[in-house]
């Protein structure tokens, strides 16, 4: 152990660095402007749910991308076949590959050889094409590594184009990041209505120039029909591109001097200018179609050579449409369409309300925890609260250094981490009290209490981190933020409990050297623990009752079932405020517009209504713009409607959430089972896992019975509950293991009763402090965190009771089975093994 003075300096520097790192996040803007940018940039950003804004998740249409690549491959193949003196065969193109059907099957081998010349190896020298030959045709497909490489390249290109387009709009600090293998996440603070941005980013903007087909180009595979932007007769154009948008280097909106109408001037690069000049020189009198996203914008007749590498696009444009087209051309075309699969927007007023609610409930929760700890433990409780304060500072410091974004679930995570951090302090205090009651002097009681508590704290925190890490891996957006704050809070609480709190307690002991170390508590709990609680007497009744409640919960899960949020069902949800229309008015008005299937319910303040439309109904309303269609329908019924929050979740996202949730819970159970098996023994791990299963089923029954919405925040609550509940059980099991080591011949039933009795105070106090920390959020946190706070409160009660009444009886049954099989309750320690080896002659 380092000297006290050294530890004071080291820990003081760590806390000072933490304060300096966290400070920029709380400085007023006027003060922050006077400080260096390198310092003030080290601050937390507020999530969209706290400041308002929009969140769009796009998915690259990989089928279109791959089909376009197959089309390019088919064109290259035809050119190579002509060079080889082989008449180009019929080529059928689909997203699945090319099917080549020559008129003369005898030439299949030659065609295959030409195909092989087009096979350009991808990463690690793997082939890019996979060919299969049958009696009459040849099938060519991209290999899996080549498909992945194409999609990866398209996503990276799309990211740059999206950034360019957003930068042109002048939005304040938009965030564009890659998500998953084919997703692009765009977050725009302060933008409550993302309709224009959605349209801008969802437009492919593929610009091509084609000659209008005339008598020299007969109908057939060399021509295609393209719709007109104005809705007139479609144009028959040559399939071959004269020029592509990749040659456009600049574009800007202007007004035609002849007509005064808005037009778009564009400028080509050197290659494009040469192609354009030669083509217009040789085709005077022909019409040239300018095609944007498979629609002809205009088709002017070429009157003479157009040199200089510039041109003009005219059409029936408004100034804003011409400016938008110029922006798209400057930024370039997307390699494939981007489809909106998730959209969430929060108005600035709702965001500020959420921030205020989160801060107020967080401060109230912390105040309740401080009051409880000081009321129970006196000055030792005050020391624990100082450690908690340092813990919160370090959490904010690490989040600031990481450049994290603080969301409402993140605030919930910090509040929960405060409640769980108290556990280590309570465990330490109770261990020190035990040592003091044994008659140990103050400093020795302090040292021994920390030593005995350390292993339990480590085990309980690591098991909780397993659940939190899975929440981070399988979560998304704000749920990940919740996982990060919980994870950081657990790590920092471990440091503050065994370092800062210990330092302060040692200082107090040295300061009052001649006084005994007295830590207060609740007298009746102390007497109950000393006298012993025969919990195991009702073990059969407890397990049977728990099983019955779990079976009833499973029944509720089947019917009426959970009230799933759109995170799992997909669809559109809108939070609406209207003072002129009631719920029945909205329901009747939407029914008249064919939306009778919409779910409408009031909540919160007067006039606030939640309107939800399931996935299938939303797609029937509008395949492309279901959000705008629903908002228009609501505005038709209630013209004064204000939309404080709008969410869209597509089937691809909702399906992923469902699969990820099930997988995360299963992996959390498996991870904890493995960890406890390694640290304890198999039957300890199995007893804890079975008890957690019973806790989870009851919590799902709570969701079904109360109708609390089951969404991603609810999943966070379930995984946090797993971590919290296993934390409780580890403390009891750690005491069981300790007692078995000290008195291996003592009956297991007696060991379990004594272990539960000796940890009863700790279990009760930890549950009360965590309950108090979350209580203000559950009462006044609002709709956004109700799916987290309410089930967590229920889970704390269930988890605490199961730690006392259920886990030990299950462990007893499994332990008795091991006893009958002649197996020890614990694997021998290294010292015990060494003694056994020493006894061998």
TrEMBL record:
<keyword id="KW-0812">Transmembrane</keyword>
<feature type="domain" description="Protein export membrane protein SecD/SecF C-terminal">
    <location>
        <begin position="340"/>
        <end position="501"/>
    </location>
</feature>
<dbReference type="Pfam" id="PF22599">
    <property type="entry name" value="SecDF_P1_head"/>
</dbReference>
<dbReference type="InterPro" id="IPR022813">
    <property type="entry name" value="SecD/SecF_arch_bac"/>
</dbReference>
<feature type="transmembrane region" description="Helical">
    <location>
        <begin position="765"/>
        <end position="786"/>
    </location>
</feature>
<comment type="similarity">
    <text>Belongs to the SecD/SecF family. SecF subfamily.</text>
</comment>
<feature type="transmembrane region" description="Helical">
    <location>
        <begin position="381"/>
        <end position="402"/>
    </location>
</feature>
<dbReference type="Pfam" id="PF07549">
    <property type="entry name" value="Sec_GG"/>
</dbReference>
<dbReference type="GO" id="GO:0005886">
    <property type="term" value="C:plasma membrane"/>
</dbReference>
<dbReference type="InterPro" id="IPR048634">
    <property type="entry name" value="SecD_SecF_C"/>
</dbReference>
<feature type="transmembrane region" description="Helical">
    <location>
        <begin position="540"/>
        <end position="558"/>
    </location>
</feature>
<keyword id="KW-0653">Protein transport</keyword>
<keyword id="KW-0811">Translocation</keyword>
<feature type="domain" description="SecDF P1 head subdomain">
    <location>
        <begin position="229"/>
        <end position="336"/>
    </location>
</feature>
<dbReference type="InterPro" id="IPR055344">
    <property type="entry name" value="SecD_SecF_C_bact"/>
</dbReference>
<dbReference type="Pfam" id="PF21760">
    <property type="entry name" value="SecD_1st"/>
</dbReference>
<feature type="transmembrane region" description="Helical">
    <location>
        <begin position="685"/>
        <end position="704"/>
    </location>
</feature>
<dbReference type="GO" id="GO:0043952">
    <property type="term" value="P:protein transport by the Sec complex"/>
</dbReference>
<keyword id="KW-0813">Transport</keyword>
<dbReference type="InterPro" id="IPR005791">
    <property type="entry name" value="SecD"/>
</dbReference>
<dbReference type="GO" id="GO:0015450">
    <property type="term" value="F:protein-transporting ATPase activity"/>
</dbReference>
<feature type="transmembrane region" description="Helical">
    <location>
        <begin position="481"/>
        <end position="505"/>
    </location>
</feature>
<keyword id="KW-0472">Membrane</keyword>
<feature type="transmembrane region" description="Helical">
    <location>
        <begin position="660"/>
        <end position="678"/>
    </location>
</feature>
<dbReference type="InterPro" id="IPR048631">
    <property type="entry name" value="SecD_1st"/>
</dbReference>
<feature type="transmembrane region" description="Helical">
    <location>
        <begin position="408"/>
        <end position="428"/>
    </location>
</feature>
<dbReference type="GO" id="GO:0065002">
    <property type="term" value="P:intracellular protein transmembrane transport"/>
</dbReference>
<feature type="transmembrane region" description="Helical">
    <location>
        <begin position="355"/>
        <end position="374"/>
    </location>
</feature>
<comment type="subunit">
    <text>Forms a complex with SecD. Part of the essential Sec protein translocation apparatus which comprises SecA, SecYEG and auxiliary proteins SecDF-YajC and YidC.</text>
</comment>
<feature type="transmembrane region" description="Helical">
    <location>
        <begin position="453"/>
        <end position="475"/>
    </location>
</feature>
<comment type="function">
    <text>Part of the Sec protein translocase complex. Interacts with the SecYEG preprotein conducting channel. SecDF uses the proton motive force (PMF) to complete protein translocation after the ATP-dependent function of SecA.</text>
</comment>
<feature type="domain" description="Protein translocase subunit SecDF P1">
    <location>
        <begin position="155"/>
        <end position="212"/>
    </location>
</feature>
<dbReference type="InterPro" id="IPR022646">
    <property type="entry name" value="SecD/SecF_CS"/>
</dbReference>
<dbReference type="InterPro" id="IPR054384">
    <property type="entry name" value="SecDF_P1_head"/>
</dbReference>
<dbReference type="Pfam" id="PF02355">
    <property type="entry name" value="SecD_SecF_C"/>
</dbReference>
<keyword id="KW-1003">Cell membrane</keyword>
<protein>
    <recommendedName>
        <fullName>Multifunctional fusion protein</fullName>
    </recommendedName>
</protein>
<dbReference type="InterPro" id="IPR022645">
    <property type="entry name" value="SecD/SecF_bac"/>
</dbReference>
<comment type="similarity">
    <text>Belongs to the SecD/SecF family. SecD subfamily.</text>
</comment>
<comment type="subunit">
    <text>Forms a complex with SecF. Part of the essential Sec protein translocation apparatus which comprises SecA, SecYEG and auxiliary proteins SecDF-YajC and YidC.</text>
</comment>
<dbReference type="InterPro" id="IPR005665">
    <property type="entry name" value="SecF_bac"/>
</dbReference>
<dbReference type="GO" id="GO:0006605">
    <property type="term" value="P:protein targeting"/>
</dbReference>
